[in-house]
Amino acid sequence: MFNSDQRRVSRCHSIADLRRVAKRRLPRVMFDYMDGGAEDEVALYGNCAAFDAWRLIPRVLVDVAEVELGTEIMGQKSELPLVIAPTGMSRLFHYRGEMAVAPAAARAGLIYSLSSMSSFDIEAVGAATSGPKWFQIYVWKDREVIREFIQRCREAGYHALCLTVDVPAFGKRERDLRNGMVIPPRLTPGSLLDITLHPHWWWKLITNKPMTLANVVGKAEQGLNDVTTLTQYAIDQLDQSVTWDDMAWMIEEWGGPFAIKGVACAEDAVRAVETGATGIIISNHGGRQLDQAPAPIEVLPEVVDAVGGRADVILDGGVRRGSDVIKALALGAKACMIGRGYLYGLGAGGEAGVDRALELFRDEITRTLKLVGCTSVAKLTPDYVSAAVGKR
Q: Which positions are catalytic?
């Protein structure tokens, strides 16, 4: 028998449907924090729209009764060419947050990436799922914090590190500014009223463990562990003087698979490979940082060509359909990362919503692969796509 979350999300037939339900169920301030981008949101919308610049070219009379969806990403098997992207403070969207997402990812046979800014810590998430896990990390001013994170990840069974490099300054996210979603919070009267109109959300939040940045509990000098204090601590710790030498040091400290997230050009991709990265994640932070950054799929072909197979190239940004994934793989990506794609499911229906989001991606990837007449994601090539007329 379905519970209410399962019934609700079972009526969603696309990621866009899940987005609409999440928008209805979440207070606007929280939905905008999930959904919004920087400044005029050119990069945010461009990430999705750029997929329309490519068309799929099908082959017919191909036996596609059975198709192979599995792949290997940085040495780890995945049942789909998808990686669950790291997203901070997921409990803002559902009271179980990361503890709802990680088990859903494991059931789907996908890699789950835990954010440094998560609301449950490395150990708790590690214990909650036996599925494959990565940990997303920044370069912190206090290098001992990095060493500590690395050791904790080893002990908790994480397979890879993912270094985010596109935050030398924070993007100007104007939806958040208007809503008062800042540090410290300055929620507007309208935002507060809207929160009161979503009793299910706030009741679940206040009757469970207090929200915090779980990975840095106990590190703020004030000795306070509330989310505002710890978020400010984390912001202050982000090192704006970071260079390639810092990345090389982290790769040596970790000694395992290591991805760099936030690459937007071939030059940096080559430098990352030469520095020791085993994964290149093309990303503009979901349009939340540099608003005039290119869409990841726009630079994918040149990055793939420059890397030349020396590292796995992963596309992050704007992926909302299985056909988006097929286009990215045809252009040379090993996999795609999804962030908002599963967060909409989380906001719409918790763990059941994440399950539904991943089910939709699986179904659409399978269907699209069959419709283009290809028997395996590994066999996709640029011959399966062409530039749309008037789009490039």
A: 285
